[in-house]
Amino acid sequence: MGQEERVPPSAEEKGKEEDDLGYRLCPDQNKKSQSFLVRSLFTFHNRCQLMLKMTLDTNPYAQLLLEAMKQSGCTVFNDRHFSCENCDGCVSGGFDSATSQIVLCQNNIRHQSHMNRVVTHELIHAFDHCRAHVDWFKNVKHLACSEV
């Protein structure tokens, strides 16, 4: 693939990007919750929920991180702290520090092994947020440490 030619963003666009904090990658994040009946009609959501349950029930890394969070005083509730949503691009998931919620990109996670990796990776961010009170947006060392 060739590289796309990119035009530098204007000051106004740059300000919008900085205020966005990545929410444009998960456009469903700010939408209101849908009823169970409406959600159950969408197979991406069902598949995501089933794969998430499988990961939380069987993956030793996820279980280790959940237990560590519980011991640190940050109990995780599956229906509160995980959200399966449609995302733009090739994003697989993310940790929303404002809501302490892990967003799983249901339209981009197609295999159980991928779900296992994404959940484990995002649980590490959740653990760091809980235990170390990471300053995600102002301290690049905190962010880098959590990514390693």
**Biggest sheet features:** 3 strands, mixed
Residue fraction in strands: 5-15%
Q: What distance separates the N and C termini? A: 28 Å
CATH topology-level name:
Zincin-like
What is the residue-averaged pLDDT? 77
In terms of per-residue confidence, which ranges show pLDDT below 50 for 5 or more consecutive residues? Answer: 1-8
Total of helices = 7
CATH architecture: 2-Layer Sandwich
Number of strands: 3
Overall spatial form: globular
CATH class: Alpha Beta
Q: Helical proportion? A: 40-55%
Provide the succession of SSEs: HHHHHEEEHH
User: Order of strands side by side in the largest beta sheet?
Assistant: 1-3-2
Radius of gyration: 17 Å
Q: Supply the number of structural domains.
A: 1
The computed structural class is: mainly alpha
Biased composition (Basic and acidic residues): 1-17
Region (Disordered): 1-24
EC number: 3.4.24.-
Family: Belongs to the peptidase M76 family.
Structure description:
With 148 residues, the chain is mainly alpha-helical. The protein has one domain (41-146): 2-Layer Sandwich (Zincin-like), CATH 3.30.2010. The chain contains seven helices and three strands, in the order αααααβββαα. It has a three-stranded mixed β-sheet with strand order 1-3-2. The radius of gyration is 17 Å and the shape is globular. The model is unreliable at 1-8 (pLDDT under 50). One of its GO terms (molecular function) is metalloendopeptidase activity. Belongs to the peptidase M76 family.
